[in-house]
Write a structure and sequence with these properties.
This protein is α/β, with parallel strands linked by helices. The protein is built from 13 helices and eleven strands. 42% of the residues are buried.
């Protein structure tokens, strides 16, 4: 892989993917709608070319993809736009990949797995129980039926530099400002949150070898912690002393009266009480150790990045 297109490069995992690809001497086209944000994120990266465009526009995606070996699909639309845009975007990317004879590497989540009572391996039958899970499964099916070499990489909820629209980001956002904050879900349930850099490292490793294509891969986090344990880590690394309030489905439903994304989030709240936990055994067996940054180190790096960005504004 010499040249790659990252669609959604202005998001948390897209940003991490672009930087990881650069670290492997891959030339990157960073694609997103907001040119100013791309310029801010990648102004110091000589191997990154920024391309402002619409991921639903075939012509713009095609122009960005000229000469690339792999197209990384790292874009996620706001929840309220999923039905309208996600499958349509997948069709555009498949068409462009065929045109350019490029492979596709899809950043996927855990929604398509549905409710699972045990740690999930890649061969578990997917039975999505939400409309968002069904959309993700439809995207996966479209890729597999396309005949294009693909990677489908399932990641748990993630956090990290520039990952502003995630569950853990909702907690960390006010920590930087030393204000009271929230934690989405119960404090006593063990869940996994993946540091974006770890997900990017695993995904770029997979994308760099032909033998890993045409498969699904699960990338778990290195630790499973309760909300209470995560809050303790935050306090230890940041000296944070403000209160942290746990919010559940009722509060999310109330917030949904005023915020379309919160309204759409209600159906996914089961994951805070019945987490889907991923097995990394396949990756360990066939590739090597799954990249695993401790929550302490990852949260510290994320808060430090946010503080630096705040000081630059």
């Amino acid at each position: 892989m010499k040249n790659a297109l990252v669609i959604g490069a202005s998001g948390g995992i897209g940003y991490a993917l672009a930087l990881e690809l650069v670290s492997k001497e891959v030339n990157v086209v960073a694609f997103a709608r907001r040119k100013n944000k791309l310029a801010t994120l990648f102004s110091d990266q000589d191997k990154v070319t920024i391309f402002s465009g619409d991921a639903l526009n075939h012509e713009e995606v095609s122009l960005a993809a000229k000469g690339v070996d792999v197209i990384f699909h790292a874009i996620s639309f706001p929840y309220e736009e999923w039905s309208e845009k996600h499958v349509a975007c997948m069709k555009v990317i498949i068409s462009v990949a065929k045109q350019q004879q490029a492979k596709i590497a899809l950043v996927d989540n855990i929604y398509a797995y549905g409710k699972q009572a045990r740690v999930v391996t890649e061969d578990v039958e997917k039975k999505p129980n939400t409309k968002k899970g069904k959309i993700r499964l439809e995207m996966e099916t479209k890729i597999k039926e396309s005949g294009i070499p693909y990677l489908i990489v399932h990641l748990p909820d993630f956090y990290g530099p520039n990952a502003d629209n995630t569950i853990l980001a909702a907690t960390l956002r006010n920590v930087v400002d030393q204000k009271g904050t929230i934690f989405v879900g119960p404090m006593d349930k063990r869940r996994e949150f993946l540091f974006t850099n770890d997900g990017a490292k695993a995904m770029v490793t997979l994308a760099s070898s032909e033998k890993y294509y045409n498969q699904n891969w699960n990338i778990p986090s290195g630790e499973r912690k309760t909300g209470a344990e995560i809050v303790t880590i935050i306090r230890n690394v940041n000296g944070y002393k403000k209160p942290v309030r746990s919010i559940g489905k009722s509060m999310i439903r109330f917030l949904g009266l005023f915020n379309p994304s919160m309204k759409e989030m209600v159906e996914m709240m089961y994951l805070t009480k019945e987490p889907v936990l991923l097995s990394g055994m396949k990756y360990q067996r066939e590739v090597g150790e799954v990249p695993a940054t401790s929550l302490e180190e990852g949260i510290s790096a994320t808060l430090r990045w946010s503080e630096e960005r705040k000081s630059e504004q």
